[in-house]
TrEMBL record:
Domain of life, source organism: Bacteria
GO molecular-function term, one example from the UniProt record: DNA binding
Lineage, opening ranks: Bacteria, Bacillati, Bacillota, Bacilli, Lactobacillales
Designated name of the protein: LysR family transcriptional regulator
GO annotation, cellular component aspect: cytosol
Native source species: Ligilactobacillus ubinensis
Length: 297
């Protein structure tokens, strides 16, 4: 099977007309038709047939099977090209979420600098939700991730480093500042400020709301932890944040959430399974593993 034939077939599966596929790839329609015929000859089965009444194609059971495998084949081929190009590159493509970057990564910066790795880091600073996608698609090769539950993905290799608790954060003059703990159901009428969907915090807020049988009222979303903390400190709303992200200069109070969910701020090193590391990437991962003791102590 040729990869470009599979690409035409996957596009046909989604677009449902030969004309649309030809237009998408900027080729003549017979080129697409021949590609599908080559695939059918290869698997010795009919993949699609034309539904004249609807002007579109219908995919056969054999076509459904091929599509599921073809998508993975094309993804693997694309990753192979990316990794081969990257292997000759001196850069370490590293995903680092802002919270981990500000709180935990500095704990090993001296070791990274001493090993002369800092100058070779090419850092993608996004939320963990986005970084997991970037890792799967080959935009980064190594990432420190924060996840609500330990990572369970057959395509990802994980080294778990530790976990921290989430808290409700509020201004020091907010009524919550007097509470050591709060049942989340008592926050039904409170305005929330949250990090956007690239971060795990927004999903956790929804989970707490679901457990308490109400939808939290989000009045502002941001991708900046600093903005979140400043707005909460000004009493524009309350927030949900890992406790380590709050320091004495923030003018914020922390309140424990009850009943607690099993979800925590789980920190892990993540790489694509079977990714071939070069010498400096292996050295870098060894430095990241030092965080296991430094996060938990």
């Amino acid at each position: 099977m040729k990869l470009h034939d599979l690409a035409y077939f996957c596009s046909l599966y989604n677009l449902r007309t030969f004309t649309a596929v030809a237009k998408h790839f900027n080729v003549e329609q017979p080129t697409v038709t021949l590609a599908i015929k080559r695939l059918e000859n290869s698997v010795q089965a009919k993949l699609v047939f034309r539904d004249r009444s609807k002007g579109m194609i219908q995919v056969t059971p054999a076509g459904e099977i091929l599509y599921r495998h073809a998508v993975k084949m094309l993804e693997d081929a694309n990753l192979a090209e990316i990794e081969i190009r990257q292997y000759a590159n001196s850069k370490i493509r590293f995903g680092l979420p802002p919270i981990i970057g500000s709180l935990y990564f500095p704990k090993i910066i001296n070791e990274i600098t001493d090993a002369e790795l800092l100058k070779n880091l090419e850092i993608d600073e996004s939320g963990s939700q986005q970084l997991l996608t970037d890792l799967m698609t080959g935009k980064v090769d190594i990432a420190l991730l924060a996840t609500l539950l330990p990572v369970q993905n057959s395509n990802i290799s994980v080294n778990f480093l530790g976990s921290r608790d989430f808290y409700i954060i509020s201004a020091t003059n907010h009524w919550l500042a007097q509470q050591e703990e709060i049942d989340f159901s008592e926050l039904k009428n409170e305005p929330f400020i949250t990090l956007n969907g690239k971060f795990i915090h927004q999903h956790l807020l929804k989970l707490y709301g679901h457990q308490a049988h109400f939808k939290p009222r989000v009045v502002f979303e941001t991708q900046s932890i600093s903005t979140l903390k400043k707005l909460v400190a000004k009493n524009a709303g309350i927030g949900l944040l890992v406790g380590d992200a709050v320091n004495s200069h923030d003018q914020l109070s922390l309140t424990k959430i009850t009943p607690a969910l099993p979800e925590r701020f789980n920190i892990s090193i993540a790489t694509r399974k079977d990714y071939l590391f070069d010498e400096q990437e292996e050295s870098f991962i060894n430095k990241l593993l030092l965080l296991q003791d430094r996060i938990n102590n």
